[in-house]
């Protein structure tokens, strides 16, 4: 299945793109997607998004089709072909 990933702000800068498509096996979840992105984009991605034990950094928001995974099944949120996942770092302003 094909998943569209949109990266914003510092994550976009770290991986060098704001848009990527990832092919995953049917039935994959958010965790599998993040593992695939870590393989593709390496340490720059991992430092921005994941903790050392492979968990999502607490300040990063992941949205699947506009819905925060915190209100779905977290890292076990199942994905389907054509889903769009947004990765949003913390935003500060003043």
UniProtKB/TrEMBL annotation:
Name the UniProt record assigns to this protein: Molybdopterin synthase sulfur carrier subunit
SUPFAM superfamilies: MoaD/ThiS (SSF54285)
NCBIfam families reported in the protein's UniProt record: moaD_arch (TIGR01687), SAMP1 (NF041918)
Pfam family of the protein (one): ThiS
């Amino acid at each position: 299945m094909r998943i569209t990933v949109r990266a914003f702000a510092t994550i976009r800068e770290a991986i060098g793109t704001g848009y990527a498509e990832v092919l995953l096996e049917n039935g994959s979840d958010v965790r599998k997607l993040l593992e695939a992105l870590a393989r593709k984009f390496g340490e720059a991605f991992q430092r921005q998004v994941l903790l050392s034990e492979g968990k999502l950094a607490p300040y990063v928001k992941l949205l699947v089709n506009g819905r925060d995974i915190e209100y779905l099944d977290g890292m076990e949120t199942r994905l389907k072909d054509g889903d769009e996942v947004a990765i949003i770092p913390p935003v500060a302003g003043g």
